[in-house]
Amino acid sequence: MSEYKIKLTKESVFQFVREAEKCDCDVDLCYDRLVIDAKSILGVLSMDLTRVMTVRFADDADHSKHIAAYAVN
């Protein structure tokens, strides 16, 4: 399982969801105890976008290149 810490803005949410949809596995977006489907635009928009979140998905180089662009250090 791959895991990245990411930070999204209102403007980047739509592109992030499009990239998550390209993954053929489950992509979860979470912080604290809240976990949502990262392929759901309403789910992602319901998250607190001021927080750094964790995105989790199956190990695969193809998936990583889609999601890694949103990673923070």
Comma- or semicolon-separated keywords:
73 residues, alpha+beta, four-stranded antiparallel sheet, 3 helices, 4 strands
Q: What is this structure's SSE topology?
A:
Elements: E1 2-6, H1 10-21, E2 27-31, E3 34-37, H2 41-45, E4 53-57, H3 61-67
Antiparallel strand pairs: 1-4, 2-3, 2-4
How would you describe the overall organization of this protein?
33% of the residues lie in helices and 26% in strands. It has 73 residues and is of the alpha+beta class. The mean pLDDT is 89.
Indicate the radius of gyration in whole angstroms: 11 Å
Strand numbers in spatial order across the main sheet: 1-4-2-3
Q: What is the percentage of strand-forming residues? A: 25-35%
Unreliable parts = none
Count of individual beta strands: 4
Shape descriptor reads: globular
